[in-house]
Amino acid sequence: MSRLGDLIRTERVRQRLTPKQVAKKCGVSESYIMAVEAGTRIIGDDQARRILKTIGLRQQNEAEFTLDDIASTVDLAQVQPALKKAVAAPKVKEAEKVASTEDDEKEGIAGSVWLDALQSVMKRVPVMNAVMKPVSYKLVPVENGRIAGANPDKVFYYLSPDDSMRGFRICRGDLLLTVPAQSPVDGAIMLVTWKEHRFLRKVKILNDHEVLLQSYDREYEAETVSIHDVGFISRCVQVIIEL
To answer: Which of 154-170 are b and which e, b meaning 16 or more Cβ less than 10 Å from the residue's Cβ?
Structure first.
């Protein structure tokens, strides 16, 4: 099977639909749907979206999770238990089925087993601007329940607001994945607050009481400050360069 075919079958089973029913809803043949599920037929994104929408995908959620995001990240090993449970579930009365369908429509894509699987392997990490307001999101893999060794709910991307760190290969518009750090990390690029301003700076620990905050725009600059006067917010572990 292809990942897309697996996803279609998983969601179809969750909706308790047969291939024939899905085919009728989509205006294609039953053999067409079965071939797509088996991964023996290549289809375009528009047709894939139409099938997924027919069996549960809600249009308003496409801005959050694209078809490519879903098809390339869902691990079916995490979907199979839910899929088997759905297959083994006893048939329900028609009235109960209608009520269940209405509930699913209210929940939208969030109620589907394949999105549940997606959320267990991927995390929507916010992109924060200079005033720490989310301006967008990026999907980031979750490994062993962590992102870059940190709690997935505590990490965020910081949108570099200027070129004050370009000498360290960080320019305006670049995205920096950050993890919590409330104390200085020697040699790290960190997001800090000092004199009521928020900065990206390279940190060098001088002694138990002082650190050097380094920047590098057109010229290298460094300021020696007391550790107690600096608020350490997070440590930058990855940079995505804006081209």
So the answer is: ebbbbbbeebbbbbbeb
